[in-house]
Known about the structure:
This protein is an alpha+beta fold. It has one domain. Helix content is 24%, strand content 26%. The protein is built from 4 helices and 7 strands, in the order H-H-E-H-H-E-E-E-E-E-E. The chain has helices at 8-16, 24-31, 56-60, 64-76, and strands at 53-55, 80-81, 85-87, 90-98, 113-120, 127-132, 137-143. Strands 1, 2, 3, 4, 5, 6 and 7 form a 7-stranded antiparallel sheet that branches. Helix 1 packs across helix 2 (24-31). Mean pLDDT is 92; it is low at 1-5.
Amino acid sequence: xxxxxxxxxxxxxxxxxxxxFPSAFVRKCLEADPTKDCYENRLTxxxxxxxxxxxxxxISRYSYWAVEQFRKxxxxxxxxxxxxxxxxxxxxxxxxxxxxxxxxxxxYKAGDIAAGVSKEYRGCANGYYYxxxxxEHFIGIDID
Length: 144
């Protein structure tokens, strides 16, 4: 008997459709081909965390201040970096970068938001990476 599968690309599209900010990643999610997987659509690097969701509410249990500052920066469309905080046994960090100009490859446009959360092994620059996909959620895209 074949185990039913879910379309993770559709999940990316469902969450991305709720974003209220401009983002190259969100546009890429909305334009993705649901007949292909996340890796083929270049949404992720093809890892076991593809499509895993982390909410700002979950992060706020570990660092309420960082989440409140992140939300404020997102609303004001300004850069932000939380520094590290303890998150689920890892070094967590939140960040936002507002793109100032279009890039040469036509991926980012001026005003785009690039944002994410990372869970890195303590004292190491390797871990799990999630991109902001809507105003309150991050979605798994890479393991390093």
